[in-house]
Amino acid sequence: MTADLTRPEIDAPEGPAPTDLEVVDVVVGDGEEAQPGATVTIHYLGAEYESGEEFDSSWSRGEPIEFPLARLIPGWQRGVPGMKVGGRRKLVVPPSLAYGPAGAGHRLSGKTLIFVIDLLGTR
């Protein structure tokens, strides 16, 4: 079952960035549950914690994306399993579970990231 979810908006966070992964179910799905190592079909939006500015979004491209969890950042590998199809989950991912410390070579290194993920399918 696919949820009829619209493009999410991320509210500006308050307070210091968390040092551990935060996982919040915004909408609990009622479909199949994503397992560790699954290939998932998702819509997502990513923003920087400090600025709240969006840096990437499948919504902006107009179509969901499919990828194996094993190829994603550790925050997604830990934060997506257990999610059910039709659900929306917010992850707040510290640098250690995202792109590493500042200077690690990625434009998002050293940044805490917020993702809103809609799970459309899993296999």
Automatic annotation (TrEMBL):
It comes from the Bacteria. Its EC number is 5.2.1.8. This is Peptidyl-prolyl cis-trans isomerase. It catalyses: [protein]-peptidylproline (omega=180) = [protein]-peptidylproline (omega=0). Signal peptide: none annotated. One of its GO terms (molecular function) is peptidyl-prolyl cis-trans isomerase activity. Keywords: Isomerase, Rotamase. Belongs to the FKBP-type PPIase family. PROSITE patterns: FKBP_PPIASE. InterPro entries: PPIase_dom_sf, PPIase_FKBP_dom. Pfam families: FKBP_C. SUPFAM superfamilies: FKBP-like. PANTHER family: 39 KDA FK506-BINDING NUCLEAR PROTEIN, FKBP-TYPE PEPTIDYL-PROLYL CIS-TRANS ISOMERASE FKPA. Residues 37-123 form the PPIase FKBP-type domain.
